[in-house]
């Protein structure tokens, strides 16, 4: 199914993604179980741009996030979290890296893999900051703080989707 977008809610084969604001921060969140979507205002130009980019991505344009404005407040984190999120954004669509790879890229050493995972767990925009591309050295790893269930199913679908789009490119 082609993604359908209504008021910041994007329904796709991968899952339902909601774009909006939590306070002043722009967020994109997968809606599972009884999760409440973030408020979305049609007059919010930045949220509309992010929702449009998410829909383009879910239609197969894996480069849809390269032109988003950098100055918009898309989640705040500690300096460490922002470094991890930045390293995560360098992973090409359709590829994966391990938590250890990010730790080594940031010159932290493998002992910091858990800290990398914790930084990715609180990622405010998991489709823009593609933490689904980060896996454990021993397997899939987690997604959004879960190691099984709906969120890891979404991670698997995202990885398969990107591989299929890249394979067909």
Would you mind describing this structure in some detail?
The protein has helices at residues 45-58, 79-88, 99-105, 113-121, 150-168, and strands at 4-6, 9-11, 16-22, 25-30, 97-98, 134-135. The protein is α+β, with helices and mostly antiparallel strands and 169 residues long. The strands form 2 sheets. It has a 4-stranded antiparallel sheet, with helices on one face. The protein has a two-stranded parallel ribbon with strand order 5-6. Helix 3 crosses helix 4. The mean pLDDT is 89.
- List the strand order in the largest sheet: 1-2-3-4
Low-confidence stretches: none
Shape: globular
Q: Return Rg in Å.
A: 15 Å
Largest sheet: 4 strands, antiparallel
Number of strands: 6
Q: How would you spell out the order of helices and strands?
A: EEEEHHEHHEH
Cα-to-Cα separation, first versus last residue? 19 Å
Mean model confidence by pLDDT: 89
What is the helix tally?
5
Our estimate of the beta-strand percent is 5-15%
Pick out its properties.
169 residues; alpha+beta; four-stranded antiparallel sheet; two-stranded parallel sheet; 14% strand
Summarize the structure.
The chain has 169 residues and is α+β, with helices and mostly antiparallel strands. The protein contains five helices and six strands.
Topology:
Elements: E1 4-6, E2 9-11, E3 16-22, E4 25-30, H1 45-58, H2 79-88, E5 97-98, H3 99-105, H4 113-121, E6 134-135, H5 150-168
Parallel strand pairs: 5-6
Antiparallel strand pairs: 1-2, 2-3, 3-4
């Amino acid at each position: 199914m082609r993604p359908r977008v209504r008021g910041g809610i994007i329904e796709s084969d991968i899952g339902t993604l909601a774009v909006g604001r939590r306070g002043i921060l722009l967020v994109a969140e997968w809606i599972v179980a009884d999760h409440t979507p973030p408020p979305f205002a049609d007059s919010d130009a930045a949220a509309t741009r992010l929702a449009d980019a998410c829909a383009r991505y879910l239609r197969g344009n894996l480069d849809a996030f390269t032109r988003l404005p950098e100055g918009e407040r898309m989640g705040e984190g500690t300096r460490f979290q922002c470094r991890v999120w930045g390293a995560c954004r360098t992973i090409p669509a359709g590829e994966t890296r391990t938590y250890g790879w990010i730790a080594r890229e940031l010159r932290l050493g493998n002992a910091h893999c858990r800290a990398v995972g914790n930084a990715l767990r609180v990622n405010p925009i998991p489709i823009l900051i593609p933490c689904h591309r980060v896996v454990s050295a021993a397997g899939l790893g987690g997604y959004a703080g879960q190691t099984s269930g709906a969120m890891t199913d979404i991670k698997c679908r995202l990885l398969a989707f990107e591989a299929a789009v890249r394979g067909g490119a």
